[in-house]
Amino acid sequence: MEAVTADDPRVLVRRLHAEAMGARDLDLLDRYFAPDFVSHNRPPELPPGLAGVKAFFQLFRDALPDVDVTVDQLLCEGEWVAVATTTRGTHTGAPLLGIPATGRRVEITGVDMIRVCDGRIVEHRGLTDTVGLLHQLS
């Protein structure tokens, strides 16, 4: 699948959050992520590379069927894009962080550092407010 065509890495990252998080077709992620993608914060239970990205997206969709992501702030320096996001959804699906569906609406904030080369995401580092999420689920 061809990469998303965008000379500006900010455009690619905005498109990822607008199109891919809500999409049900995980193959759409092939357009955004390089096959040799590296995440420095990958949960150990997820596979590396693109397969891990797809598993992560699926995990959120299964737990929060109405998941939606808002880009709160975005900065770019060369190949690197820093993006602050708020993810919202209702926990009516699969367990999240080991907690069965609560029916509660949750809001998860995070900051990601994303490196883009040749129109694809090749590297990621990120922080998510997991403690805040646990408080909302309990």
Description of the structure:
- This protein has one domain (9-137): Nuclear Transport Factor 2, Chain: A (Roll), CATH 3.10.450.50.
- The protein has 3 helices and 5 strands, in the order αβαββββα.
- The chain has helices at 9-20, 49-63, 130-137; strands spanning 33-39, 68-77, 80-90, 105-117, 120-128.
- A 5-stranded mixed β-sheet has the order 1-5-4-3-2.
- The termini are far apart.
- The chain is globular, with a radius of gyration of 15 Å.
- It is an alpha+beta fold and 138 residues long.
Structure at a glance:
The chain has 138 residues and is an alpha+beta fold. It has helices spanning 9-20, 49-63, 130-137, and strands spanning 33-39, 68-77, 80-90, 105-117, 120-128. Strands 1-5-4-3-2 form a 5-stranded mixed β-sheet.
Descriptive terms for the model:
138 residues, alpha+beta, Nuclear Transport Factor 2, Chain: A, five-stranded mixed beta sheet, 25% helix, 36% strand, globular
